[in-house]
Structure formats: C-alpha cells, structure tokens
C-alpha cells in the first residue's frame, strides 16, 4: 500500500486493500476453525496439559478478528497515518483489561458453584478462559473502532480513488501474485518469532524430567518474565511497523541518502527506549514483579536481572526486519529468522540436556534475537551501504541508562527500607516513584551527554514545550 500511494496509484492501493480483506477473511477463518476444533489435541501435543483446551477455544475467534484488524491497520499505515492504529489499540487494551478481570472472576466463581465444573478441566482452566475472552472482545472492539474510522474517511478515500486517472488498474491475478510474494515471507517470519516461544515451552515440557506440576509452575514463572519483556518489545514492534511506509517511500523514490537517514533514526529511537527499558527491568525487577504479581517466586526477578538484555536484541531485530521489508528484501527476515531459530533450538536443547532447566528457555530467547540482529545488520549494511552510528545510538544511551539504573536502585532501596511490613501497596508506590526518577534522570542525562538533539526532542509528544523548559533551566 505504501509503495502504491507513493506513486499516487490510489486505485490500485484500494484494490489491494480489498484483495487483502478477502485473503484475511479466508485465512483467519480457517485458522480460527482449526484452533477451535483441535484445541484439546494441540494443548496436549504442545504443552502436555488438557487445561489449555478451553481458553484456546475461547481465544480462537480472535485469530479471525486480528486478521481483519491487521488489514485495516496496514491500509491506514500505508497511507502514512498511525492514528487509527493507535486509537484502536488503546480501546482494544482497555476493553481487554476490563473484560479479562471481570470474566476471569465470574468464570471461576461459576465453575466452582455449578455442577458443570465436573466436565470442565478445572476452575483455573475457566479462569484462563476468562482472560482469553478479554483478548477476544478487545480485538472485536478494536476492529469496530477501525471500521468506524474507515467509514468516516470513506468519502476522502473515494475521492482519491476516483481522481486517480493516471494508473493502470492491476488485475486480481497480479495483485495476489505480488501479495503472496510480499506477505508470505513476512507471515512466515512472524510465525517463526511466535513459534520460538512455543517450541521452547514444548521442549521444556518433554525433555525435562520430573513432576509435571513443578514444570508448569516454572513455565508460569517464565511466562511472567516474558510478559514483562514483551512490553518494551511491543513498543519497538509498533515503531518498526510505523517506519515501513517512510522507508518504502525513500526506496521507491531512489533517495539513498534519505533512506540511510531514516534507517538511522529508526534504530536510534528504538534503542532510546529499549536500552533503558532493559536496565530498568534489571535493577527494578524485584519491585516490579512484587507490584504486579504479589508473592511470585524470586526466580522471575532473577530472570529479569540477567536476561533483560533480550529486550535490546528483540527491539533491534524487529526494527531491522522492518527495514529489510521496507526496501523490498522480504525473504531475508524469514531466512535469518529460520537460521536463528535452528541455532537457538540447538542451544536450548543442549542447555536442557545439561540441567539448566527453565533458564535454558530464557537464554534461548536472547540467543535467537541476537543472531537475527547480526544477520539483518550485515544484510542492511551490504545492500544500502549503511554504516551504523554507534556513539549516539548505543554508547550514550547505555551510559545514561546505567546512571539512571543507579539512581533508580538507590531510591527504591532507601524507600523500601521503611517498608518493614513488606506491604504490596507500599511496594507499588516505591516502584512508581523509582520509575519516575528513572525517567527524569535518563532524559536529563541524555541531554547532558548530547545523546538527543533539539530537533529530535521536538519529534516527541509535546517536544517543543520540553525544549523550552530545558532552555529555561539551562539544560539546553
């Protein structure tokens, strides 16, 4: 879509959008049906537990809804606007959070009180089902928001399409041919990213000897760690997706200097978020875990302490994937992910066989993302003659993040010394204060070390006001 709109082929872009909707409807519908019908078989085969079957069945329609959402978001992003995506994601997560909590509580209560409980795996299975219902209804609300925004903009879209008299209309045969050559590597690459975690869990379930209940507990602890590192990675993914249209535009126009500049900006902005996120999760992991999951085993905080570097690797790999896709090298993220997947799987199996236990999966995550970064970086450098700027992209953010980490750790430790009763609510306050201090210290340090220029800060939300404030206090 970005390539078509750059060449002002609005008619072809809209036809491509329609063809994509057909593809998403069929593929999403088929996959949702398969998951729904074979939920129990999949839960036994992959996780060696029947308790996943019920939440999987409730989750199945989400696949269909997300397929359609992806097409609408892609069409808007291809037209250089992230606003519909942002609004729909915000509404989606609000509905997700509310419904997940209410449905989980209601389902557990229902399963315990009702005789139907005997048929359904357990109250925990019903509780997980409530959580996946939140995901499903969140996706539905996000799709509805996108449909409303699309209908509001339909008149403008029609005007652009009807005003396009310069381009020849692509045939559906050509569209689907190009579409499959374009999106199949992207889809397979994303499958590998998600398969990575599933295969690791499967290996752990089947290769580690011992009590299955203990293994499920350890997988649950790993799940909490993975959830926390996924938050900054999700930000990186969103940033990566948002830069694809601008990279496509520079590539289509043949502006190599502009292309290299866009790549540099994309990687730098991702590292500005990923590096301090990794350090923050490492030094404040104990407090964050206790705030979100009271009573959780200390193992989760230990995971964050030594493996939060995974955030940086995943963020960089996601951004570099977006760059390669933007310059038309669709198959290389897939190739690099496949090679990295095999290498990481070898490492995971060796670690599991030598007694590393659940740590094997945590280390495997970092190994997978690291190899993708290396392969992607080499291909980008070779293709567009790109030389990565190191100092402002990696060194200064890392130094500033270390300074931030020291301040945040000291503030949290001092405040926690007064929390003699180990109150969860007090821990939450301590965590929020420490995070607030971390943000301020990191930002000030970045300005002091000249890691951010005035023009870069102005690109932030309320950036101009930030610049004015810093000039008043002589920081800039």
Overview of the molecule:
The chain is built from 18 helices and no strands. It has 476 residues and is mostly helical. Helix 2 crosses helix 7 and helix 15 packs antiparallel against helix 16. The chain is globular and about 75 Å long. The protein starts with a helix and ends with a helix. The relative contact order is 0.08.
Helix content bin: over 70%
Beta-strand portion reads under 5%
Uncertain stretches: 114-120
Gross morphology: globular
What is the element string, with H for helices and E for strands? Answer: HHHHHHHHHHHHHHHHHH
By DSSP, the count of extended strands is 0
Straight-line N-to-C gap: 40 Å
Mean pLDDT: 87
Structure classification: mainly alpha
Please tell me how large the radius of gyration is: 24 Å
Number of helices: 18
* Largest sheet, strands/sense/barrel: none
